Amino acid sequence: MRLDFVAFCVIFSQVYGKNVTDERYTPVVMWHGMGDSCCFVFSLGSLKKLIERTLDNRIYVKSLEIGGSYIRDYESGYFIHPDKQIEDACYQISNDKNLQNGFNAIGFSQGSQFLRALVQRCPAAKVKNLITLGGQHQGVYGLPNCPSLTTKTCEYLREILNFAAYAGWVQRTLVQATYWHDPKNEDVYRTKSTFIAEINNEKSIKQKYIDRLQKLENFVMVKFMNDSMVQPVESSWFGFYKPGSDVELMTLEESDIFTKDKLGLKKMKEDGKLKFIEIEGNHLQFRNEWFIENIINAYLKN
């Protein structure tokens, strides 16, 4: 005897004690950027609610809190080395039963490269779609915003930071130094950088980093066209300055990371897994409508 779909649903729900239409969406893990925290109501706290509301509260959203408190989490954006933060995040994910079957990951600003490192290093992080907004995947070479300063003054301050950024105590103490990338001193960068050069396989090739990135369904990179925090802006798309220059730019495809296939990004592009999105506006400036259409509906509604 044939049963129509409605009758089947009724029988199934009675037998198994659940409504088959109450299927939940893939969980989401978010990681904030510098000067932010997991749960500020005007930033990630608001976005968490937007995702939940848009998906009818049938989704688990975890905004990572590093260090066990709001204050410590805020401070982590400046003073806790990314390696320690990633260990903390991996521990949280490993012990969260809601994330054991996989999740989508959304990184904001420096949280972008931290989440990518989590994918590469943490076996428990079974990420399906990695989405990064305003990330610095090849690092930065410049000060975020130079209000009221001339270009020459900003350049001078950049040179000072470049001189100090690779000092051991600075690398251990200041988060932003760990993804400072000096294109005029590539050898020093590769030798002294304690984070971004390592996760980009520029010190030595770690095959597990490549293998774990290959497991992603999509690696989505959002670039803000008028970004005044990420210098150069192309770093959000894995581009950067050409070696030896702080003026001439190169795309991901022109970089050693791609041409020498240090991270397996060439294959990911061939497989259609790399997605590049650009949006008008400054750093992390977007409307809820844009986020719903381009992020939630495109990558979370699965």
Keywords for this entry:
about 300 residues, alpha/beta, two-stranded antiparallel sheet, 13 helices, 8 strands, about 40% helix, globular
Largest sheet: 6 strands, parallel
Approximate strand percentage: 5-15%
Helix/strand/pairing category: alpha/beta
Give the count of helical stretches: 13
Mean pLDDT: 90
Helicity level, as a percent range?
A: 40-55%
Show unreliable segments: 9-21
Classify the oligomer.
single chain
Which shape, going by the Cα principal axes? globular
Number of strand elements: 8
**What's the end-to-end separation, in Å?**
33 Å
Strand order of the largest sheet: 2-1-3-4-5-8
* Rg calculated over all Cα atoms: 21 Å
Q: Strand-and-helix sequence, N→C?
A: HEHEHHEHEHHHHHEEEHHEH
Overview of this protein structure:
With about 300 residues, the protein is of the alpha/beta class. The protein is built from 13 helices and eight strands. Helix 4 (about 80-95) crosses helix 5 (about 110-120) and helix 5 (about 110-120) packs across helix 10.
